[in-house]
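Box S1 | Example of a co-folding query
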Amino acid sequence: MPELPEVETTRRGILPYIDQQIVAEIIVRQPKLRWLVPDEIHAMEGEAIQSVTRRGKYILLETAKGTALIHLGMSGSLRVLKKGTKPEKHDHIDIIFANQKLIRLRDPRRFGAVLWTTKNPLKHKLIRSLGPEPLGDDFNVDYLFQCSRGRKVSIKQFIMNGHIVVGVGNIYACESLFKAGISPKALAGKVSKARYKKLVMIIKEVLSAAIEQGGTTLKDFVQAGGKPGYFQQQLNVYGREGEPCLVCDATLKQIKQGQRSTFYCSKCQR
Ligand SMILES: [Zn+2]
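Box S1 (continued) | Returned holo structure for zinc ion
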C-alpha cells in the first residue's frame, strides 16, 4: 500500500511537470474507483494547476475552479508520461496537459479515488478530521501525550490511527516502536511522556528518511518519473519474524494487532 512517504515522493515527482500547466483534457476510462469519479472533474479542463500539495495521503491539485483530490488506495500509482502513450490494463485516468505531458493513474485494485471539490479542500469530509501531519510542528510530544491519556488501545494501534496523526503506516509504526524501544503491546494511556518524546522524534526521523529515499518499496509503486520505485529502506523488524534481532540477536516475533501484522523484538521493546 502506498504510504505517506510514497505519496510525498509521488507529489514531488509530478510537481515539476504539472505545476502552473494548463489541463487540456481528462480521460476517465474507468470511473468506478473506491468512489465514482465525478463528471465535475472535467471542470479542470482549460485551467492551470496552481498548486500541488498533500494532506495525509491525498494529493491535492488546485485550480481556480476547484481542487482535485487524488488518493492512491491500496495499489495506485501516478506516473508522468508523454501524451499519446498507450494505456495498459488498469490505467484508469489520464490528466493531459497542454505541455504534452500527462499524469496517469494506474490502480489494479481500484481502492484509489479521484474526487473534486469547489470548496476549501482542507474542509472536505475525507480530510477535515485527519490528525496533524507527522512532520509538522503540530505533531509533538505534548500533543501526542495529551491525546494518549485514558486510551486503552495498544500504542501501535494508537499511532496508526489517522485521527491522531496521519501517515504512520504499518511498516513505519513497527520500525519506529523498535527504534524507540517500546513494546507494540503497551497501552497508549500508560506510556510515559519521556517515551512519547523519544517516539515522536523517531517517527519524524523514520518518515523523513523514507521520503528521502523515495519511499519504502512496495510492488505496485512506480516512481513518478516512470522508474520503478524500489528503494528498500533498511528494515529492522518489519517482515523479519523468526530472524535474529539486529541489536540483541533474540528471535523477532510476529503478532496480529487490529488485523495488522506487528513485528517486534520482545527483548529490546518493553
Ligand atoms: Zn532485540
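Confidence is low (pLDDT under 50) at residues 216-231. The beta strands are 23-28, 51-55, 58-62, 67-71, 77-82, 91-97, 101-106, 113-117, 253-257, 260-264.
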